[in-house]
Fold this sequence. Notes:
Blueprint: H1 26-36, E1 44-48, H2 54-61, E2 66-70, H3 74-86, E3 93-96, H4 100-109, E4 114-119, H5 127-136, E5 141-152, E6 163-171, E7 174-181, E8 196-199
Amino acid sequence: MRVISGKLKGKKLFSVKGQNLRPTSDRVKEAIFDILQDQIRGQKVLDLFAGTGALGIEALSRGAGGAVFVEGSPQSLVALRRNIEVCGLQEQVEVLAREAQTGIKILEARGESFELIFLDPPYRRGLARRVLQALSKSSIVSPGTLIVAEHSLSEELDSIPSWQRVDLRRYRRTQVSFFNLKKSRPVVIQNDPRGVYYEQ
């Protein structure tokens, strides 16, 4: 794994061995950030199920103002903290060593809110849907918040109350959905008349 672009371009990131993990591939990560383009600069980012921090670190490299990483696995936390250190991001980040929904409650209690949320849970456990449902009722989400959810082909997320999916991309076995709150004005994330893009 490596940082694709920005001030940390080319920086290698530590991964976790010996676990049944599915880190976001560099190819999918690059595609996500090509879609987001310049909407990252200055934003406050939440990286749920952060793993080794690849998505949040990429956002910081591209100009995000700060990030909170939420991760419950002790093994992943070791790699996450090493990656933050080698990238020199200690002053811009916070790590919550908690499961995602517990982390959300902590952030709610502190009055935090985020403009960009990455959601990349383990596949085939229903976690993406459950966390999106929790976020729909959470004060950490504002009308302008954009959620980027990575999920499997078998997980259908377009029928969750309160959320409108503004874009969907498919990269082989991975889908990436982009969500806004339904009452908010949709964020235009890319001038692409196809709306839905499928890569074989």
